[in-house]
Amino acid sequence: MKAKTGKTIQRIRIAVQVLFTFLFFYLLLKSGYARAESFTFTDYFFYFDPLLLLLNFLATGTIITVFLLSVIPLLLSFVFGRFFCGWVCPMGAVMQFFTWLFRRKDKKKKIKETVDKKLLKLKYVILIMLIIAALFGTHLGGWFDPFSLLTRSAALTVNPAVNHTVSRVLERGAMDEGFVSKALNPAYQFARKNILTNKQRVYSQAVLIGLIFFALIMLNMYKRRFYCNYLCPLGALYGIVSRFSLFNLKTNKACTSCTACKNDCTYAGSPFKDYMKSECMTCFNCVDDCPADAVDIAFALPRKENRTTIDLGRRRMVGSAAAAVFLAALPRAFVHAKSKIHKFLRPPGSVKEKDFLGKCVRCGQCMQVCPTNFIQPAFLEAGVEGIWTPVLNAQTGYCEYECNKCTKVCPTNAIETLEIEKKKKFKMGIAVIDKDRCYTYADGYNCAVCEEHCPIPEKAIRFRDVPTWNFKGEQVTVKQIYVVPNLCTGCGICENKCPRIDAPGIIMTAEEEEREFSYDY
Amino acid sequence: MKRREFILTTAAATSVACLPSMFTMAQAASGALVVKVEGESPYDITKKAVELLGGMQKFIAKGDVVMIKPNIGWNRSVEQAANTNPEVVKAVVEMVKEAGAKKVIVMDHTCHKAEDTYKRSGIEAAAKEAGAEVRYVDEKRLTIHDFNGVRLKRWPIFKDFLEVDKFINVPILKHHGSAGITIGMKNLYGILGGERGKLHRDMGQGIADLAGGFKPHLTIIDAYRVLLRNGPIGGRISDVELKKTVIASTNIMEADVVAVALFGEEPMRFDFIRAAAEKKMGFSELDKINLKYLKI
Fold first, then answer.
1. Whole-prediction pTM value?
2. Are residues B209 and B168 part of one domain?
3. Does one domain contain both B17 and B116?
4. Is the ipTM of this complex over 0.85?
5. N or C: which end of chain B has fewer CB within 10 A?
């Protein structure tokens, strides 16, 4: 095949890749947090992820119908190989971009990367472990899955970080009284209106998630598309399928064995040597690079000699499976599994805890769309396997009464869609007064900020005149607040708005939460 | 000194000492007209009310930058009557523009998320339609303001409210859990930043100090739909009653007193009216207020 044709295909591929990446980020940003009622279509990419379909099925025994869409790219892979990684995947595009950015310009100094067959096996081990762990009820796909990973990283770390930087640069200039201010103020006002969030978004796990994403990007300096080649379980799944695909790259007689095709190969192999269908992302860099037009596309039935792949070896497969069985059991041995008390609350519409952990893919979309920054990624409060699952934090936000966005974006229905009238009644928990802290009890003076903010029309927080002693020791009549448990939904606005600064005088708890709570397996 | 002399001098001294306060009382009471207009359209009665006060050009000079501060606190719809009626805001913006203002800004420090409340209340759309700039508060643009009050001394307020030539307060009349009722004076909470929740302690005094230390040039109270119970946020349509009234005055306290009466309550029952009366901000007795009523 002519190198020119290769170049054309390569360019089309890059265009397609950019298009999908743009679409992904457009949907992600567009569904952002500005308003309670707006666009919620970020989850569309997830529906084309067969890995999540598989793991969800294994962990919960149910298939989410819309995820059957992911069969489409899977079937296409039987024809075109791992085209998904090279043409569609936005995470792949990001990694490709940084690989390109970090490449050594000087060809002489260029470190000749060679195929790392050992490391290539890692992603298959990860895939096997995820599958076995899911079989035993622990669904950790979200930690590794490219869509979850990219959505989580972009929404919870990159986006707020960019927002902070831009607003800081602009507002520093715009706040001064003087020449600089006059020049920068229009830019600041424009940015505030169109780009920046009105209030800086914060996420409890931003540092950890951000560092991991940063590390994954930096690893591209060490190996090309490090994450895609060595870590991505979805890539591994497509790799297994691609083994049996019709698509092959072959060198013809014109080949001079110059190994130029190796220069830009994503997995550092080449059609000339170490060609592996399971690793080839059909990027067509090799066709473009070949000076002798010696690389050809060859569609052929996947006979045994055509199934070029990494051989994981029976030992390693059994070994990683056995290890996964043990690792999957660990969270069950963690203290959380027995504790009767749980101190975290889940977003409205969340399914019972057992199913929740089996469904949630830790993508962070619910956290991103929450208009008040109420939903936060958990660290250990929901158990080891609950890391980065959504929990509610009334210190950063509250559940907006007129909003049901989080219930609409969840791709796996760990948070089920609730119509707005239903959501208004959904009990996430209830509010409990800390009488040692609440001003109306502890200090004996009127406050009732929580009563004022309670969104329930019938008022789940009320007050009554009670004779008591105030902080000066005088006898007074105070409007003491109380909660009406059967009206309270645990929206947390009372805790959020409580003026007390050491610890709130009213807190939301998971007591009386509507969904069934049980770690029972 | 004889007893008689002593009594005489004491009496004289006391009356002299009292003079200034008597003087201010007389001053506060002089002239402030309160108008109350009832009618079917919130837009029309707002315009009529300002007309009765002498027209907007009486308060706005050509080229003024004018701030209009409605209550946009809550993510509630117009029918739920937790925010100022957008038609009222629209009428005010239009009048201010017609009077020759250079720029009209509509903003409030909301309780719920601003993006939501501005939209659902209908105020964003109405104000923009009438040609105003709609602005969110910027937490970075705060400055400490001296209120010199009993309870409220120094507190951060948004610079935007100080950078304008005229300030028009456009509250809604509604029930309020801890203050009892919220009208014009309480609406000024929206200029404050900081931990406003702290001000709920001894709130009545705080409200009076606030209104005493930051005087709007005009107060136009929307009492078209009035939330009678479960305020300030409400939610149930059954708690809302149609009063179809707008009250306007340059004296914020007297406007509030008239509104309290419309609500069907005794003004002196409320801490903030008592505190404002003590500060001599106006009359708390309805019969002493220079009130003009019109039904259209």
1. 0.87
2. yes
3. no
4. no
5. N
